[in-house]
Amino acid sequence: MGEYTSNGWFYKPDLGAKGKVEKDKFDAALENIDAVLKDLDDFASLAEKSSPASTDLLIIEDSVDSYNKKKIQIDTLPGGAVVVEEVIEKSDSGALTINDLDKTILCTNTAGMNLNLPSVSATEVGKRLTLVKASDQELKLTAADSDKIGSSGEGGYIFNDQALEKDVASVTIRLLTATQWFIVAKVGTWYAV
Q1: 86-192 maps to which CATH number?
Q2: What phi-psi label fits residue 53: left (phi over 0), alpha (psi between -120 and 50 degrees) or beta?
Q3: Among residues 165, 154, 164, 166, which one has the least CA distance to residue 192?
Q4: pLDDT tens digits, residue range 72-115?
């Protein structure tokens, strides 16, 4: 005789244990494993989000608090979070908008491209932009107003004109102040003017 664990994963027989204390420990261990498997089963049934946002929440088990489950916002993770940004393709030169920020732009114009950053304010501080050069022609990013990009002058620009860096060159910038973009990462040869 015996019974199943609360989630029905294991059968707890009455036989095989050496006394009540050992049987209770054995049954408790099976219940614990059963609960973990139930959590895994629930986890597997969840839909996957393809483009996480920095404000999304994650479920964690807090190692400092006996592995109790807690929630944490992605952008509060130590060292920042790697968030898959929305990737959009652009093939025409022209003005970017505030809505293009916090995205990756795949620049595909085979005749070269000149993109212009939008006018920004303190509201946009912290926003990012990533450009990927998918052409062997020049890719130029010009600051709005009197803004600077890295070491560029006011209203200046950065560019990559290296033909061999097609599909390799990229740059990620982040707005530090209402007038200063910081180059967070770059691959390839980028010049500031």
Answers
A1: 2.60.120.640
A2: beta
A3: 154
A4: 887 777 655 455 568 889 999 999 999 999 999 999 998 999 99
